[in-house]
Automatic annotation (TrEMBL):
Keywords noted in UniProt: Membrane, Transmembrane, Transmembrane helix
Species whose genome carries this gene: Paracoccus aminophilus JCM 7686
Keyword Transmembrane helix: yes
The organism's taxonomic lineage, starting at the top: Bacteria, Pseudomonadati, Pseudomonadota, Alphaproteobacteria, Rhodobacterales
Protein name: Membrane-bound metallopeptidase
Listed transmembrane segments: 6-29
Length: 114
């Protein structure tokens, strides 16, 4: 076989393989085509997915808002608690001072009365 015949034979084989591949590809495309009813189902499912994602986003936003509100309320309550504890501590100190004052006065009265 000379060079020209070899080139022609190779070209014919390559062309035949190309045609065979094209036929197989078109057959696969025809058999794997999705029916319209399934496309409608896919469209419906994608719409439901979109709706659910929107609801999730709204729920997350609402949750973040509630968390911020509760954090603010907790901070405010903690501040009030600190103020109340400071007032209680001051009152205890004042009561202790008054007890000491009363005890000194009573002791002074006992000494002067005895």
């Amino acid at each position: 076989m000379d060079r020209t015949k070899f080139i022609i034979a190779t070209a014919i084989i390559l062309f035949a393989v190309f045609i065979l591949g094209w036929l197989v590809s078109s057959l696969l495309a025809r058999f794997s085509r999705v029916p319209v009813s399934e496309m409608d189902e896919v469209e419906r499912l994608s719409q439901r997915l979109h709706d659910v994602e929107s609801q999730r986003d709204r729920a997350v936003t609402e949750l973040e808002m509630r968390e911020a509100e509760l954090t603010e309320r907790l901070s405010h309550t903690s501040s009030e608690l600190r103020s109340a504890l400071d007032g209680l501590r001051d009152s205890r100190n004042e009561i202790e001072e008054l007890r000491d004052y009363i005890e000194r006065k009573l002791a002074k009265n006992r000494q002067s009365g005895a």
